[in-house]
Every structure is written in C-alpha cells, then in structure tokens.
Amino acid sequence: MMATTKKLAALRGLMKKIPSTGEAIDAYIIPTDDAHQSEYICDHDNRRSYICGFDGSSGTAVVTTTDAYLWTDGRYYDQATKQLDSHWTLMKDGLPTTPSIGAFLAKSLTKGSKVGVDPKLISFRTWAPMKNELEAADCDLVPVRENLIDIIWTDQPPQTSNTTIVHDIKFTGETVNKKLESIRSSLKEKNVEVLIVTALDEIAWCLNLRGSDIPYNPVFFAYLIVTLDKVFLFIDKNKLPEDFAVHESANDVKIEIKPYDNIEAFIGELLGQTTGKFWISPASSFCLNHLISEKRRVQEITPINILKAIKNPVEVEGMKMSHIRDGVALCQYFAWLSDAVAKEEAVDEISGATKLEGFRAKQDHYMGLSFTTISSSGPNGAVIHYRPTEETNRPITTKEIYLCDSGAQYKDGTTDVTRTWHFGTPTEYHKDCFTRVLKGQITIATAIFPRKVKGQMLDSLARKALWDVGLDYKHGTGHGIGHFLNVHEGPMQIGMRVIPDDPGLQENMFVSNEPGYYESDNFGIRIEDIVQIVKANIARDFDGRGALSFETITMCPIQTKMINAAMLTEKERKHLNDYHKRVFETLGPLLKKINDDFTYNWLKNETQPI
Predict the structure, then answer these.
(1) pTM of the entire structure?
(2) Cβ 557 vs Cβ 331: under 8 Å
C-alpha cells in the first residue's frame, strides 16, 4: 500500500490554479489511458497508478477538492482494496449500485463546478456521455491540456522510444500494399477521404512492423493517416528500422514520415486542404476527434480493426503452430512443477513463473511473454489479475490450488492459456467448483451459432453450471487475441457487457474461452483456451446466414483429478477425452523428437480418458 497524502495535496494545489490558464477546477480525472487509449501502457504513462497506488490494467481515478475515488471492475476489487490507502474510496464499477463517474460527480458537486481531464487521455466515447451527465447538473467537463500529474511527478520515467522491427511477409501473409487496398476500399464505400489511426496495434499490423515501447505488447508509439493515395506515419525517425527503405520496396508502398508530435497540426492542415470526410474511431482521444467538425467526421471503428481480427490463411497457420510449440513448453513446465512439488522442493510463484518463461524461451520464433505471468497459489488465485511480487509470493505446495495464466509472443502468433492444478488431494468442493467451470468451458467450445452473432449472446452458456448453484465470475468469458500483437484484441468479445463495436463473430477470428470461479482469500479456478472460429459441420445453415463453431488450438491437458466425472454429461466427457487424445497425439511425437521422455510420460498420464 502506497501513502498518497503528499501527492494528493500537490495535485489539489494545482487544481486551485492551473499553471497555464490560472483557472480552478473542482475535480480532476486521471484515466488509465495513454494518448492512444492503449489497454496496457508504458511506465511514463502510468499516471493513475502514481496518484493512487493501484496498478491494475483498468481503472479511473477521480480527485475532488476533498475526496479521492477509484473506479475499477470486478477483476480488480480485491487487488484495489489491498493497494489503496485510507484517502481513497473504491467504486466497484459494474455493480448495479455503482454510478458512472459522470453521474456521481453530477450529484456530488455543486452547480457551476468544473471537472478537468487531459483530452488526450480520454476517448471521445467516454467524454461524450460524461459531458452530458455533468451538463444536466449545470457542471462542465473541461479539457486541461497541461497534464497535472506530469507536473507533480518529479521522477516520471521518460516515454519509451525503441527501434521497430520489420515483420516478415512469411509471417504476415499480406504485403502492406495489399492491406492498404482493402483499407482504401472501405474508405471509398464510406465516401471518406482520410483515415486517422491512433490504436498502436492497428498501426503495427497495417505496416507489418513491430516494436517494444510497451512491455509485452509488440507495438510502438506512432500515429497513421491513410488517404486515397498517400500514407503518413507520425513517428520519431530514430525508431525506424535500418532496412525501412527495403521494407517499403518489398511491400510496394511509400510512407511519408512526419514528427510524432505533429499529428494535431497536420490534421488541421488536411482539413483546410480538403473538403471530404475524415474517418476516426470514437475510441480515439477526444482531443483528435474534437479537431474534426461533426459534419465531416465519420465515427466508427476503423476498417483495420476488423481486417486485423479476421486472420488470413498464413496468420491462421501461424496461430496454430505457435500454440503447438507453446503447448510443449507448458507441458514441460507443469510436468516439472508437479514433480518438484511432490518431492517437496522449494518452488514458489515467482520461481515457477521464471521456470515457465525459460521453457518458452527455447521455442522457435519466441519473442517474449505476452503479459506478466499470473502464477498464483491458494488465496492469491482469487485475485483475478494477480501478479506475484516479493511481498505476496507464496510457495506452491500439495495443500493449495495453483492457478497459472500465461502467454507468449512468437513471430507467428500470440498465446494465452490458463490451467488450474491441485498437486495434492482436492476437496469435493474444489472438484465441484472446477467441474462447473469446465462444463461452461466445454459448452462454449462445442457451441454452434449463426455467423455474425454477437459474442454477448454466448456468454451465459459459460455461466449456467455456475449460476445453477448461485456462483459466478467477474470477468468476460472471451476476448480476441492478436497475431504477434496484443494479447487482448477487439472488436469482438464474449461477455456480459454490450460491446458497441462488436461486428459479430466471424470465421477465422480467434478468441479466448475462459470461464472461472474465485473465492476471496481462498482459491481461484480458471480454464482458458484460445479457439478459432470455423464453419460448423451441420446439416442446416441458419437459412443461409452461415453456421459457425469453435476449434480449440491451445494444447495443454486439463487436470482430470480436479473433475467430478459424475457431473459431466456423455457429450462433455467425450469432448474432453477427444481433446486430450488430440493433445497427446500432437505433442507426444514432438516430445519424443527432443528426447523428453519425462514430459512425454507425464503427458500420457494426464491425457488418459475418463
């Protein structure tokens, strides 16, 4: 827990008189976002964590002249409770009793109050309803161009600026020019002249480049503008790879380089030089959206967003192969771990995660982890996005459930998998909870659904076995996943929330399948696979709409010792046995090839039919 007394006092001092304008504000909002509305951010942009001490990936801090609040969702209730000091009030976002930030401030502030926020760090989609809620109470939401946290953060790390790398055509499957053709086709359909791209993974995908400016996310800080005949990349020139000219030539494209900080001025110039419409995502910053008049603004997710989500044949093959290699590493780790724990060797959450990373690092095309490994034993498993630290580190033993959620970046794909183990004797209650999670996971894995159905429509399938006895979990059931890109990728999701940009599930999208159950201060259970959306092999076709289903590409056994087999239907039992047979037949020969008989024997035992 971090003491925030002095930081809050310094911030409130600036709120009384903003240095650049001399005006006062009555509340200040500190979002998690960077200027690109990234889910994960670099240390320089970790302003919300700096002011309140909570370091989860999602949340918004609000500081008034007298109080301080943090809004975060159910994944982080436990973590935030432990990390916030007494100056802060946790607002449990997602509960029916928790108001939105705008509604809360509209009710708690006096008429005429001003609420400030850095316009670069808040999306237009978040700004617009908040502004309406405040104005209804005669309050104002005002842009504060000078970031107040940056002023008081005296030892703020510099923004990362690492060199990018070329992502070879043998992995991408399409040239930049080919991608631009598809993008420009979409622009013409919308009668749009200019596309503004701010999402870092969209820029990396479009240009067949990768970076390392944000940990675990192979992206780089840049903006991109695509017109009907030109491409402009706003980036620090020093970040470009040495073979950038060769890359342009190989991809049959010419990219004009502009200074990163020139994006706003350049948009203004283009607006003056053209009369057509500009396409920008409402998920981009209010700052950039506001530059374009409503009459000339097309506000939808970019065409890149959907093109990127639907993998091409080369990307599909890469995703499958990377998950096979990842499966080898996972089995090597869990085989080693089960043996070490049985022998009562000293293994803890941190040393376990380090060992797993070592196994992955030996695999072909390995480029690093895709997120901080959630290696959690006993009660730490109940913290949904837990990460072990020296202060929280627990031993992995035969007495507690062990949950491991991990993933890696490979040049041909990104992985994300969760397995839950008990290396001793699970209780009947453990097995009941685990089996209910598994039943939901199998229900999703075997689901058949119409093409373009929204992911939200499938979510309750994963929860029913838990709901039957009054249990649930506070996170989504599935997220998209990138191809050597962000581990969480939109625009589709499977969850309870309405996703405004969800285009519906389509063939060759890849999503996670990850129901779970968590008991505070006790244990956590999650089973997560990545699944590919494929055509369903059924007689009917939803009247020509198209029938789809899922194919699991994650390769790692699910611990049968944790299952109450009597709770499974024959269909569920067959699905699990078929899956384990496929895992063994896929990974077994690879383990034999590298003479890893120890892991081979472990895998053979763990994939026995039930």
Answers:
(1) 0.96
(2) yes
Instruction: Give the C-alpha separation, 527 to 517, whole Å.
Output: 10
- For residue 315 the two structure tokens come to 């990307």
CA angle 56, 58, 61 (to 5 degrees): 90
3-state secondary structure of 412: coil
Residue with tokens 């089996």: 435
Secondary structure class of 318 (helix, strand, coil): helix
Interval 514-538: pLDDT, tens: 999 999 999 999 999 999 999 999 9
> What tokens were used for 276?
């057509």
User: Is pLDDT at 1 greater than 90 in this prediction?
Assistant: no
Q: Say which residue the tokens 């670069």 belong to.
A: 120
Identity of the amino acid at 139:
C
Distance between CA atoms of residues 601 and 596, nearest Å: 9
Q: State the residue for tokens 């975060």.
A: 72
**Distance from C-alpha of 89 to C-alpha of 70, rounded to nearest angstrom:** 6
For 98-151, how does the pLDDT look when each residue is reduced to its tens digit (9 = 90+)?
999 999 999 999 999 999 999 999 999 999 999 999 999 999 999 999 999 999
Write the pLDDT tens digit of every residue in 384-442: 999 999 999 999 999 999 999 999 999 999 999 999 999 999 999 999 999 999 999 99
DSSP line for 89-110: EEEETTSTTPPPHHHHHHHHSP
Percent residues over pLDDT 70 in the chain: 100
Strands 231-234 and 223-227, how do they pair? antiparallel
For residue 312, the SS3 value is coil
What is residue 66's predicted lDDT score, i.e. its pLDDT?
97
Closest Cα to residue 458, out of 470, 438, 473, 476?
A: 476
Q: What angle do CA 322, 326, 330 make, to 5 degrees?
A: 170
- For residue 259, the 8-state DSSP code is -
Residue owning tokens 């997710």:
301
Residue type, 18: I
The per-residue b/e assignment along 300-332, b for 16 or more CB within 10 angstroms, e otherwise, is bbbbbbbbbbbbbebbbebbbbbbbbbbbbbbb
Res 128: pLDDT: 97
Calpha distance 204→231 (Å, rounded): 14
> Helices 459-467 and 428-445 sit at what angle, rounded to 10 degrees?
160
Residue 412 contacts residue 420 (beta carbons within 8 Å): no
